[in-house]
Design brief:
Layout: E1 5-12, H1 17-30, E2 34-41, E3 49-57, E4 70-75, H2 78-83, E5 88-97, H3 104-107, H4 117-124, E6 128-131, H5 133-140, H6 146-158, H7 165-172, H8 178-190
Parallel strand pairs: 1-4, 4-5, 5-6
Antiparallel strand pairs: 1-3, 2-3
Helix pairs in contact: 1-6, 1-7, 5-6, 5-8, 6-8, 7-8
Pfam families: POR
Domain Pyruvate/ketoisovalerate oxidoreductase catalytic: 13-189
Protein name: Indolepyruvate oxidoreductase subunit beta
């Protein structure tokens, strides 16, 4: 049986999904894990989907996660959780930001944003954590820190005490945002 763990991070362009993934990878590498990462920007600058696949363990040969193989899915937006749910293992964990970003079709009136996303997720998954990451980030003074709040929720789900997550944040964000992001990480870990 493989010791490789699979994490799928999904969000919308501009939410900081890739930065959160880079911090995640830096922390895991520093702790001695072999890490592979793959990222996809689907019209990311225009509010499209962004996905990052991170695999770590003793030896990882590929960055790609297949359907039904993700140990953890981190969704930075509610609909993205539903969009990628088929990648989660039956006993996998899901960490969801209780945040909605209407798509272009919703904004144009062609579709309705489903209001029951969180209820649908609660009904389908026992290993579900819902985080109001945008609210936590706003309390810290900058909504852009919601990505690191979500990273904190993932860190808690992974339970990897040997990883120095604060060091990973310090080494991967601009100096003027380090304190904000460390506070965001701690907020996410406390949820």
């Amino acid at each position: 049986m493989s010791d490789v763990k699979n994490i799928l991070l999904v969000g919308v362009g501009g939410q900081g999904t890739i930065l959160a993934s880079k911090i995640l990878c830096a922390g895991l590498i520093d702790a001695g894990y072999d890490v592979k990462m793959s990222e996809v920007h689907g019209m990311a600058q225009r509010g499209g989907s962004v996905t990052t696949q991170v695999r770590y363990g003793k030896k990882v040969y590929s960055p790609i996660i297949g359907k039904g193989q993700a140990d953890v899915i981190v969704a930075f937006e509610r609909i993205e959780a539903l969009r990628w749910i088929e990648y989660l293992k039956p006993d996998g964990k899901i960490v969801v930001n209780d945040y909605a970003i209407p798509s272009a079709t919703v904004l144009s009136g062609k579709e309705q944003y489903p209001e029951d996303v969180v209820d649908r997720l609660k009904g389908a998954f026992k290993n579900l954590t819902i985080i109001n990451a945008s609210g936590e980030a706003l309390e810290l003074g900058n909504i852009k820190a919601q990505n690191v709040v979500m990273l904190g929720g993932l860190v808690k789900a992974l339970n990897l005490p040997e990883v120095d997550w604060v060091k990973a944040v310090r080494e991967n964000v601009k100096e003027k945002f380090v304190d904000l992001n460390i506070a965001a990480l701690e907020r996410g870990m406390a949820v």
